[in-house]
Hints:
By secondary structure, the protein is α/β, with parallel strands linked by helices. It is 41% helix and 18% strand. It is elongated, with a radius of gyration of 20 Å.
Amino acid sequence: xxxxxxxxxxxxxxxxxxxxxxxxxxxxxxxxxxxxxxxxxxxxxxxxxxxxxxxxxxxxxxxxxxxxxxxxxxxxxxxxxxxxxxxxxxxxxxxxxxxxxxxxxxxxxxxxxxxxxxxxxxxxxxxxxxxxxxxxxxxxxxxxxxxxxxxxxxxxxxxxxxx
Length: 163
């Protein structure tokens, strides 16, 4: 995220050069502004999961699912964990996750909430829930009892199943 301001300045200087070099500078400016406005609208719509934005060349997020790496940061896990903490009032909630990012997202919670969660990997772990974000995934998760889903633009990007 720290590099974004430099990238914006670099892009704006390139855009300024294109406008100066072309005789149709106003048309280029209008077309660019329309495309930038559309992308900005999509980013606002995806918030807080703007890192899951895919352009329309791949069909948006729906077209990217199962074809591209999506939630590699595991940012959707935090919403799933918040849901479990809110709806399951037991002292200890055992959660199986498909990757380590799901486990690491648990550390973002206050200590009293973190101590209520035991998050681990692997089929041998006796869990109450399975939680999985679609990152490098070739198909849907094999569980049936879905109790929560984080969706972006109508596409599930993280799901929680009761085991």
